[in-house]
Amino acid sequence: MSLGCVIALAGCGLPTDETPRAVEVPAGVFPERDAQPVVGAAADTPTTSLHAVYFLRDGLLVELQRPLAVPVFLDAPLNNLLAGPTPTEAENGLESAIPAGTEVVDVQLLRNNVVSIHLNEVFFEVEGAQRVRAVAQLVLTASALARDSQGVLFYLDGLPQSLPDGAGAIAQVRPGQLPRVLQVSDFSELMPLTPLRSVSRS
């Protein structure tokens, strides 16, 4: 390189290091590069997830997908159900047969994929068709808590309870045995011919 070239480079303010080094390029020089996402940047973390709860319209079951705050524990969809329909949902004809004051004392997923629900005594005071519908709401909502759920068992004060299926029938329990597990298929009488499902936004 001639002496003139060296002087010219020095006059431009460029370094004359003998080894390569990184040079910071000002923003805007390569706009297409500046638009690329930052590698390793944290993605937005969802704050809610949708879970099925079941209400009634004209005596038939309706599935609602309710947004619940994450992490979602087993009792969250059930407590959401017990809160009843929102005012907007009620205006659209949705209702609940579960008596006001019903509380979930405990809920567990057993090893055989059966959901056990421990309720307070208020729930067991309801009778007749209302009891059947209330049981159906809880069975369908609880069954949605686990993949391949094998059904639901109900408890009061730690003791298993026999409750009616969709036809109002209560299976006889032999001494020393648990009541029959109630499943979604036991409430086909309360299923609409065309399943009703919507996402609650209220």
Describe what you observe in this structure.
This protein is α/β, with parallel strands linked by helices and 202 residues long. The protein is 21% helix and 22% strand. It is built from 5 helices and 7 strands; from the N terminus they run H-H-E-E-H-H-E-E-H-E-E-E. The chain has helices at 3-11, 31-34, 75-82, 87-91, 128-143; strands at 48-57, 60-69, 104-109, 114-119, 151-156, 159-161, 197-199. The strands form 2 sheets. It has a 4-stranded mixed β-sheet with strand order 3-4-5-6. The chain has a 3-stranded mixed β-sheet with strand order 1-2-7. A hairpin with a 2-residue loop joins strand 5 and strand 6 (159-161). The longest helix has 16 residues, at 128-143.
Concise structural overview:
This protein has helices spanning 3-11, 31-34, 75-82, 87-91, 128-143, and strands at residues 48-57, 60-69, 104-109, 114-119, 151-156, 159-161, 197-199. It is of the alpha/beta class.
